[in-house]
Amino acid sequence: MKLIKIKTDKGTTYQCSCCGQVYDELPLTFGNDFPDYYFSIPPDQREKRIELQESLCVVDGVYFFHRGRLTIPINDYDQDLIFNVWTSISGDNFRKRNDLWENPRRIDEEPYFGWLQTTILTYDDTINLKTIAIENEVGLIPTIKMIEDEHPLTVDQEKGITFEKALKIVDFILTSGHTKTTNKD
Question: What does the pLDDT read at residue 146?
Answer without folding.
Answer: 98
